[in-house]
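Service request form, structural biology core

Requester: graduate student, group of Dr. S.
Request type: structure prediction, single chain
Budget code: on file
Notes: please return the result as structure tokens.

Sequence provided:
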Amino acid sequence: MAQQLERRLGEKVTRKFNLGGTILAHEALVHGKIDLYPEYTGTALSAILKQPANPDAAATLAKVRAAYRQWGLEWLPPLGFENTFALVVRREDAEREHISTLSEARRRSWILGAGYEFATRPDGLAGFQAVYRIPLIGAPLTMDLGLLYRALENRQIDMAAANSTDGQLVSGKFRVLEDDRHFFPAYQAAFVVRTAVLNARRRRAMEELSGKLTAERIRQLNFEVVVSHKPIEEVARDFLATL
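Core staff response, request fulfilled:
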């Protein structure tokens, strides 16, 4: 978005990275320390508004849009992808055992690997197992998210609680099991902007990105950064050149 605004408007954009997560970024936005940042609708609903998670994407977006007006903040139309928890298995296992959904995964037992968030959040392991009751071999192995796919390949685990936008999913080695009971909340990605800084030209430039980043596209971009080790700035610039 920073590159998009600079190339479309010729305005200098200051980047402030590593702000420490949703709560701090939200406070910075409310107090005018930053003007916009990307957020997930489900995260805003639960972490900021303290409301129950909702799998209905349209309803979640409508709720956060209405509530954020109290702070003079606007949610732009979503970018086109969600980033939610994704239960991933080796493709060979899924094909051999004809498993494509999480309900079908109940046919066998699994060694589960998970990041720390999945292991502790209410929309993670506890809630997930209350719905699916997938047989697990021992306690889940918690590890950094970056290690999950290596653990899958090395057969240290045979199911990973990863993220739906992971670049490693591009490789074809893995399969995301369908959340057929719709447990995971809606996590549409969108920019939240201070209404005070929006004008017609800025809005038009920002909304050029709305709907352009599908799940497949963001996975490919993440693959280029995480797996191919291309600089983020280069990957962003190459993507914008395709618009």
